[in-house]
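Handout, section B. The chain below has 99 residues.
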Amino acid sequence: MKTFDILIKPVITEKATSNEKEGKYQFFVRKDATKVDIRKAFQQVYGTPVVKVNIMVTAEKKRLGKNRREMTKKHSLKKVIITTKGRKAVDVMKPKMKA
């Protein structure tokens, strides 16, 4: 896996941006990425040491549609919260390393 393939995109919500002041950043990542892969990718892309990586996997949400056919309403996602060392601000929209 390449470094830029692991971190898909940052989570931009009100709660996620308020946690950035504490040094916690949220990203959507590939489903097969491990904590070690995520830690290395973040350190290479943003140049900031990582203290902790927490992973959350959300389940796929389905509902019955027309003619009782099962439809996917929300796909399953893997989201991580990355805690950095210190309170140095990282701009998640501008990575330091280029693809």
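Note. The beta strands are 7-10, 24-29, 50-58, 61-64, 70-74, 77-84. Compare this with the example in section A.
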